[in-house]
Design brief:
This protein is an all-alpha fold. About 75% of the residues lie in helices and about 0% in strands. It has two domains: about 5-205, no CATH class; about 305-395.
């Protein structure tokens, strides 16, 4: 009686059929999709190229299968289960992620290749990997089978050749007789999937922890970068401030240099002006001295009028010259006649008086017009008479 709960029923048979569909046709379908994107000849080289990407997300069994200690992978895709095939399709096939991204529940309207691959993953995790019980009611089974059939048909349509092998297999498995041994076999596979899922959870937990640590490190690095950016910004500000100060100093130097040049120019100009003013001063001083002399020799209007009034007329000057000339003739006559001492004394006295009067007139009165010429001739005539007189006196 205690073992009656483990007897096969219609509901457990539904679960076994779903497990068989996932573990056989769907797994083979994943293999063909992988071959369509990465050939088995290329696979070992891509494995080595993507080792750093794949190794952290593989469990121990998967890692030993892909990266054996004895050397490189030499097997075929037939040794890969559904879980490992999903990892390879997601990471090395080059298939474009769906709208929500790999590993997330796709949008119902998204019927892309990656979306359908993720739908198979979700069904497998729900009914094989994480199932609480291995039994399905009729309604749930029929709805699930319908969804799986559509997904398989769409995935198969992405392969070349247009075959319907896996869709046909799904229709057969839905109604084929399931003997107790086959049912037990697939139920055991479900248990193995449970264990594989548990291992995968452990790996994912470790990856999550590593990612958190990496995020902490990234945050620290980001913080350091921000601090560095702040330091760089402050350095740039200080450099800009120093450049501004240097420009100000340069401006002041240029300004002082300009002022010095202007000062030198002004000094040269002042020196030149000083020399010029000195010459002007000396010239002015000479002019002042001349003006002083002229001022001292300049007569007032009354004095000038008096001189003009007292200046002899042309007739009077002519009379003086004529008388002087007659005096010369008389002197000649006297010399010839050999006058007496009294007469000689009288002549000398009169001649001296005439010369004195003439001299006074010349010195005290200004020369006007052509009078200077007349007086000069008169003076010459008087001088000749005086010379003759001296000669006569010496001879006598």
């Amino acid at each position: 009686m205690a073992c009656s709960q483990y007897i096969s029923t219609k509901e457990t048979t539904h679960a076994a059929r779903v497990s068989r569909l996932l573990l056989d046709p769907c797994t083979d379908l994943f293999r063909d999709i992988l071959r369509n994107h990465v050939t088995e000849v290329q696979f070992p080289f891509i494995l080595q190229k993507e080792k750093n990407t794949l190794s952290p997300i593989l469990n121990k069994a998967q890692r030993e299968k892909l990266y054996p200690r004895s050397g490189n992978f030499t097997g075929t895709y037939d040794v890969f289960d559904l879980s490992l095939l999903y990892i390879l399709l997601r990471n090395i096939s080059g298939i474009t992620p769906h709208q929500k991204g790999w590993g997330k529940s796709p949008d119902p309207s998204d019927r892309s290749l990656s979306a359908n691959i993720d739908r198979i993953r979700e069904i497998r995790n729900t009914y094989c990997g994480h199932a609480v019980s291995v039994s399905l009611l009729d309604a749930e089974f029929l709805k699930l089978w319908q969804d799986l059939t559509i997904i398989i048909t769409e995935l198969e349509g992405s392969l070349p050749g247009g075959c319907t092998t896996y869709t046909d297999a799904a229709n057969i498995i839905k109604t084929v007789t399931m003997d107790p041994e086959q049912e037990k076999r697939f139920l055991d596979m479900i248990d193995q999937q449970h264990q594989s899922t548990a291992d995968l959870k452990k790996i994912m937990s470790g990856i999550t922890t590593n990612l958190k640590n990496q995020n902490v490190n990234l945050n620290m690095l980001e913080l350091r970068r921000v601090v560095t950016d702040v330091d760089i910004t402050e350095l740039e500000i200080n450099q800009k401030r120093e450049r501004t100060e240097l420009e100000k100093v340069k401006y002041e130097q240029d300004k002082q240099r300009t002022e010095l040049n202007d000062l030198s120019t002004n000094l040269a100009r002042l020196e030149k002006l000083s020399n010029s003013e000195k010459k002007k001063y000396e010239t002015s001083r000479d002019d002042r001295e001349v003006d002083t002399v002229v001022g001292e020799t300049t007569w007032s209007d009354d004095e000038l009028y008096y001189v003009v009034e007292e200046t002899p007329s042309s007739g009077e000057l002519y009379y003086i010259v004529e008388e002087t000339s007659q005096g010369d003739e008389e002197v000649d006559y006297v010399v010839e006649e050999t006058p007496s001492n009294d007469e000689l004394y009288y002549i000398v006295k009169e001649t001296a008086r005439g010369a004195k009067e003439l001299f006074d007139d010349v010195v005290e009165k200004p020369l006007i017009g052509n009078l200077d010429n007349l007086i000069e001739e008169t003076a010459r005539s008087a001088a000749r008479g005086a010379e003759k007189l001296l000669d006569f006196l010496e001879d006598k």
